[in-house]
Structures are given as structure tokens and as C-alpha cells.
Amino acid sequence: MNALSSTRVHMALDWNRRLMRQPPGAACTRCEIRNPFALVLPMRPGKGGSVKKRPLVCYKCRIQLLGRSGWELHHLGGRPSPVAPVLIDANLHRVLTYLQLGWRREGIAPGSTEATVRDVVALVLVSLQWLTEGK
Ligand SMILES: [Zn+2]
Question: What is the whole-number distance in angstroms between the Cα of residue 62 and the centre of ligand 1?
Fold first, then answer.
């Protein structure tokens, strides 16, 4: 199996693992986003081994509840990035950061031209899908 197909298998398994952690049709109770990489786990271990139930929310809504803006800087090509970071939706940032694992798994150096080009392509493609398909 070459590095590219190995990366795709890893990503498919990660996607499936995330889906399996959430109930069917899971969506953020605040903004209704359904992307499994944006949703954060609703359960948190409590004291004495009990489990506290919390409303299912996405990463962006969670950080907004903590007083943050919901926007984050994305470093194209990883760190150190050869270009200025871009300000993007926090959920989109979560997805794009996950996609950076692809080139990292292939051994591409952070800050390299190849890593940066891949991140720019991912930013454009995921943003277009994000805007047209409602996340
Ligand atoms: Zn949300």
C-alpha cells in the first residue's frame, strides 16, 4: 500500500470512528452542524466513574460559550508557515487541521511548499463545500 492510499484508509477509519461515537443524525443543539469532526463529545466522566450528560454542541459553539469569537487562525502548511495565517470559522479550522494529518503521515515537512499548496487546495475545496452544502 503506498503512502497516499494508506493516508486515505486512515482518514476513512477516523471518519467512521467519529461517526460511531455519536448517535445517528447527531447535530449541534445550537447551530445544527452535523460534521462529525466539528461535533464534540457530549459525555464527560464525572466523579466516582459516573457520566454527566451534556447537550451535544460543535467545537465553535463550545468555544463561543467560553467567551471566544468562534474564529481561529489557520496556519497554511503547518508551523512554521511560509505565509500569513488566515482567519477562518473554528469548525472549518478543526476540519482543515485534521486534514493536515494527511500530509504529515506522508512525511511532508511542515512549512514546505508541498504542505502549503496542499493546505491551500484543502482550504478552497472544503470552504466551497462548507458554503454550498451547509457544513
Ligand atoms: Zn454549533
Answer: 7
